[in-house]
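Q: I have 500 residues here and want to know how they pack in 3D. Can you give me a structure?
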Amino acid sequence: MAIAVVLAYAPTLWNGLVWDDVAHIADNPRVTNLAASTAYLFEPVGAYYRPLVFIAYAAEHTAWGTAAVGYHFTNLALHVANVLLLLVVAARTGVPDAAALIGAAVFALHPVQTEAVAYVSGRTDLLMTTGALLSCAALLASGPALARGAAAAAAGAVAMLSKESGYALLLFWPWLASRRARSRLELVVLLAPGVIVALLLLALRPALMPELSVAASLARLAGVGQATLTYATVLAWPSSLQVDRLMPLPASAMAQIVGLLVLVLALVLVAWGLSRRGPIGNWTAWTAAWYLPVSNLVALYPAIADRALFTPEHNLYAPLAGLGMLGGIGVCAAATRLAAPARRAGRAAAIGLLAIWCALTALRCLDWRDEERLFGAAVALGSASPRVWYDYGNALLRRGDAGAAAEAYEGAAERGPHDAEIWTNLGVARQRQGSYDAAERAYRRAAELAPRDAQILENLGTLYLARGDLVAARAAFTAALRLDPERPTSRRALAAIGPS
């Protein structure tokens, strides 16, 4: 199993740092040494508090600096470790060996897992899942209840300090402990350390949990159902993986009805699974616990909650452990009812599917090689994310293809019409093309959206200079300096233009 994972994900070792990796590692002075990285223990990164991930980056930085291969190797090693830990937890929850092997293979090799493994910043999902699996393994081990509970709490802290969804352990711990405890006292002893640690981490957290808006409309609930259907489709047919997936809320009455029906069906299936004792109940509980934080029942991004849901594939990393085990259990149960020839055919089909997944996984890893390829693949699929189109435009602009970059920025503006940065870069691309009127329109739209941004006015000044309109250029540079007196470009331009 470990060898299969390494072969499938080996292409990541030749990939670079892309997207958030650059800000988190290459351009981040805090990860250049361990002492500086401890600052993440005392302050969040935006709305997120994931200090262990950044401390891990700093530890790696001492070994290989900003060489991308080292960070990709760590991600691959974590994924291999998670696969092996999953086999341990499966055995301790009573999953038969054959079913556990199938379930671990699904978790290990499904192409959707590339979105966490091939993305260095996907370390949050990997490390969180490592902590969660270690915690469950400890809780299910033999020995004194207090020692097991304390070990589970320590590993749970790793999960919670790696990603906010690690707090889903508060939902899963009681389920798992209640099936192992022989008395109420033992149940309390098993759970108390973890609950205490979780509450302490929440109390000491230097920032509030991300601001989440509760779903309150039928359209959003239908969207949650549609997101579940989209995820199910991606798992069944992983041919359209895309970074930073956004899913618009269903607008038509029929789409909303379908979404609500899917949501009801999903809840019925979860209720049925939880009603079963043994491995089915345990892995249904795992799946539900780790899918709940990413289900969009509460908005992961409140700013877009009225029009879209945030549904990136890397959110499926931990839930797929449970889905894989449930699939393995189901396949093995069905196989017992088949004749020997049919079982052999089914075994051959399963091996063939895994081989196809390995190939698709390796190909998807190649998409993560650089930003132009990564974002271009998402744009080709019609991504609804303005950020994807914007970043694709940035990659094209860096390569010098201003025309293609302008088209990408226009796609971004269509999907995010109120983002000043998109309009600013559209102006830059059009200006480099020599399309001065189109550039001016883009800059003016950006200035309307961000009237206090001196950079936009300075860009307008350079545009007017290129057109030879010294009066308009002087006015733009003067306005930029009023907003930000420390702009050397504007000062030099005014000096060159001379007095009016």
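Q: Anything worth noting?
A: The first strand starts at residue 246 and ends at 248. The chain has two domains: 2-210+313-365, 374-497.
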